[in-house]
């Protein structure tokens, strides 16, 4: 598995995982829009339908919950802006030197066990990130430093 995925899982790179890969296409233009991979612990997915090439019968996280007996509890998303690899350039039909957004999603159960690490890669010029949140007006803000 890639070093970035092993690091997210907290395991050596040669650890056995079940990998599911896909390329998603825009339904209107049939243009490739996303390269995605999911890395599942072998003790959850080995010997199950998750090893087969067919589309899973429901959302992947529901399959993992069913097979592991654990529920997704918390996740961490790491966003990386970088140049496309040769594979990404070819698969997504990009020009050489194009930028991509690469997201590594690490999902854990309540006990901290890794349930899934997935990565998604999109052409950067097709990504919009919206970050919306409340501002705590009551926050305890330290006094401004005194003027000398």
Written description of the protein model:
The chain has 148 residues and is of the alpha+beta class. The radius of gyration is 19 Å and the shape is globular. Strand 1 and strand 2 form a beta hairpin. The chain has four helices and five strands.
Q: Biggest sheet: strands side by side, in what order? A: 1-2-5-4-3
Q: Estimate the strand proportion.
A: 35-45%
Number of E strands: 5
The number of helical runs is 4
Q: Order of helices and strands, N to C?
A: HEEHHEHEE
Distance between the termini: 57 Å
User: C-alpha Rg, in Å?
Assistant: 19 Å
List keywords for this structure.
148 residues, alpha+beta, 5-stranded antiparallel beta sheet, 4 helices, 5 strands, 18% helix, 35% strand
SSE topology:
Layout: H1 3-9, E1 17-25, E2 32-41, H2 42-45, H3 60-68, E3 72-83, H4 86-92, E4 99-109, E5 114-123
Question: What is the gist of this entry?
Answer:
The chain has four helices and five strands, in the order αββααβαββ. It is of the alpha+beta class and 148 residues long. The longest helix has 9 residues, at 60-68.
């Amino acid at each position: 598995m890639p070093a970035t995925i092993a690091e997210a899982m907290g395991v050596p790179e040669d650890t056995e995982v079940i990998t599911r890969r896909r390329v998603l296409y825009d339904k209107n233009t049939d243009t490739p829009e996303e390269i995605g991979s999911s890395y599942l612990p072998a003790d959850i997915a080995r010997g199950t339908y998750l090893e087969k090439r067919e589309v899973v019968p429901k959302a992947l996280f529901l399959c993992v919950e069913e097979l592991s007996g654990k529920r997704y509890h918390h996740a961490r998303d790491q966003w990386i802006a970088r140049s496309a690899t040769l594979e990404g350039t070819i698969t997504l039909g990009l020009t050489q030197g194009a930028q991509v957004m690469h997201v590594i999603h690490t999902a854990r159960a309540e006990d901290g066990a890794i349930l899934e690490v997935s990565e998604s890669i999109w052409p950067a010029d097709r990504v919009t990130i919206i970050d919306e949140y409340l501002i705590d007006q009551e926050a305890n803000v330290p006094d401004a430093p005194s003027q000398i």
